[in-house]
Amino acid sequence: MDKNLTEQQTHELSVIGIQKRFGTYQALSDVSFTVTPGEILGLIGPNGSGKSTLLECITGLLPVESGTIKWQGRQLSVENRKHVLWYQPDNILPFAEQQVTTTLSFFQHIHGQGRMDIDQLINRLELSPMLEKPLKALSKGYRRRVLLAIALLSRQPLLMLDEPFDGFDLRQSLAVMDLLRDCRANRTMILSIHQLTEAEKICDRFLLLDQGRVLAIGTLDELRKQTGLSSNATLEEVFLAIT
What is the set of domains in the chain, with CATH numbers? Predict the structure, then answer.
């Protein structure tokens, strides 16, 4: 068997049969999928579909009724997930009272990154004017840029970002997409996105989630074929056809 194929098959994240309840409410029902090395997987669905819940179950922040997480073909315990996964939730403010430069330097230090790494991120995310301000004083868009910088300073091979483009205008979203693409050589990503037009621009494959169930998974072309739509159908049209 081809060595490269074997490595690609084993160096992947597998989510198998995740079930999650909140009391009598079934939040996730038998959710299963894989993410391959270097892939950007879009987790899409309406508000309340279970996207954030799924990410928290994968990280181990939420316990599950059943299901397995595997990495490199081996079961990944909750205790070991922090070594593989970096999860960036939506709307968090780490060290909100501290200056942005202090917060970024802290994460640079704990992840063992060089000064060049953080300088490049500051430049790419246009954070220079905000470095001396506390995080809590920033606009939503700038807070999002700081959170993204923190995530990209991490060394975990799998990034899971919840609504990474929320608060950005079109130009800013496209610039962040370029940055994420540049990082994919050594990072795999799961992006939870509710803006379907943005998901279509950045993601390689899409997992369509609704009411805690996987409706479909595949590339845009594969999803078009499943729904019988034309080759120029948008992700939004595909999603409406499936749901």
Answer: 3-242 (3.40.50.300)
